[in-house]
Amino acid sequence: MLMRTDPMTAHTPEATSEKVRPAVQLDGVTKRFGDSMALHEAWLKIRPSEFMTLLGPSGCGKTTLLNLVAGFLEADNGEIFIDGDLVTETPAHMREIGIVFQNYALFPHMSVAKNIAYGLKTRGVDKKEIARRVDEALALVKLSGFADRKPRQLSGGQQQRVALARALVIRPKVLLLDEPFSALDKNLRGSMQVELKQIQRELGVTTIFVTHDQGEALSMSDRIAVMSAGRIRQIAAPDDIYRRPADRFVASFVGDANILNGRLVEKRGDVAVVSVGDISAEVPVAPIAALSIGDAVDVFVRPEHLSVTARGASGSLPGTVTTQVFQGGHVDLYIDASGSARERILLRSPGIAALSSCPVGAEIGLIIGSDDIVAFPPGEAA
Amino acid sequence: MKRSPATIALRWSGRIIVAAILLFVLLPGVVVAISAFNDRAILQFPPQSWSLRWFYRAFSYSDFAKGFWNGLTVTVWASSIAVVVGSAFAFAIHRYKFALRDFLEGILLSPLIIPHYTVGLGILILASQTGIGRGFPLVIFAHVVMVLPFVMRSTYISLENLDTRLELAASSLGATPLRILFTVTIPLLIPGLLSGWLFAAILSFNEFTATLFVSSQATQTLPVAMYNYVREFADPTLAALSVIYIVVTATLLTIANSFLGLGKILNVDAH
User: Fold this and answer.
1) Which parts of the sequence belong to the ABC transmembrane type-1 domain (chain B) (predicted)?
2) Residues of A in contact with B165 (CB under 8 A)
3) How confident is residue A12, by pLDDT bands cut at 50, 70 and 90?
């Protein structure tokens, strides 16, 4: 097997009872390109065997962070540790990291086997051992029998498997994935995601995955660091990111969100009560702790947390259905509720019942059917 | 919609102009090629009677044979030196930012705007002042100067087209910069280096103006030998030589194109 030295260590009781040494640690890492701040004081601790995703729009600094960990860029400030060792000034070729690029970057003049063997040759591994480990790696990515092909003779998915095998065969301390799925077509992407996740879990290799695709991030990660404009906005497990976004950027970037006009009614302990029309809801107090009772707030509600009721029912908002979009498993209703929201409200109704019960033009009532509501100080719709 | 007579006239005059240009491009070569088969010892078009004897003379005339081998020596040395030196400079200019970078690039590309007779004359003056004889090193030196810009450009374009992520991938796999250079960078630049060498070779082998200044009887290349021949004789030997030359060059280029994708390299703009 291509196992790292006992990846289970991290899960044994004594390892967890002690403070686990982070596999990767960034302490206030800053990187500027000329006048622009590519990465602003990033603090990040990645646990051994963890699958950490850096999620954000292009230009948010996620690729810069990845390149800093890889050693392709030098940090202006701050320190980087891999496996507890300070590597801030260690050149890339001495960091023992594996990387898979978006375009795979396979050496076009070498066969699949030579590509995979490259990192072993640089380490002076003997020939027999190289052959054995290359075979093993090819089996791991289900490409046994492709050893003598050239990269250009492979499909995109196969090229990606080779790139993965090449990165893993050196038993890297960290595996870096730079948007590896964006060049694949949609069907292949799904199956490669499942496979990659499976391999990652099997080997227990610490992984940093860069993507702008929130679906990929939510489905694959142990934790996600959401980034924007060179800053890490929130680091949390996928469900926490989705249910309890830390700020309005995270709330709008991850998943769909409706922004309702609300008011702060009450603060008690960790929670605050906000009202939208006749509805009142509890939200985490932290993001709006600075506001006073009676101040306006933006209330973020997921489309699937809204449901339809009769017009005028108590605790509901009035709205008019303007568009129906049948999505197969669910129906998207666009609802005009001016007064409660600045923009059209999106409501996601499971099943197909809404197709007939909520025709275009129907006057309906909206209710919020979840506790996962968050509120932020009013601002531009991000 | 009906086209106006003016439109039709414009369209036809355009076609005629294009046809005329194409004709004039080919005309000199065609005239010379046909003249080469003249039986009589004069350059005449079209010939009255036909023969292959000037081809025989082109091959047997000793100055031509010597000029050919001299030219080949100069070409191989000059192109090879230019590829090594030019590529090193192209690499430095492409990869590193340093003071006077643009200035250096300007100097290295300047032979494009300096006439060949200036290069020849300059080197000749220097050689006579310093007492360096007009041997092969002098001719080769002149040729290196003149072909350097072309080699640099060819390497530069190849570097532009090289995906730097390949080098990053190699370094993540533990390869030192030197190892990356020899296992990734240079192998991937080889088509560009070869096509640069080939262009340098064609230019060098054809070069006449500067070579006339810097060569001697012992080092004269084929173009210089041809010039000296035409001063004495006016028979179709040169025409025959031209035909041979065109056929050989065209063959070489065709082979190079199918192996290296020369057209692809040339069509990509560097800057």
Assistant:
1) 68-256
2) 101, 103, 105
3) very low
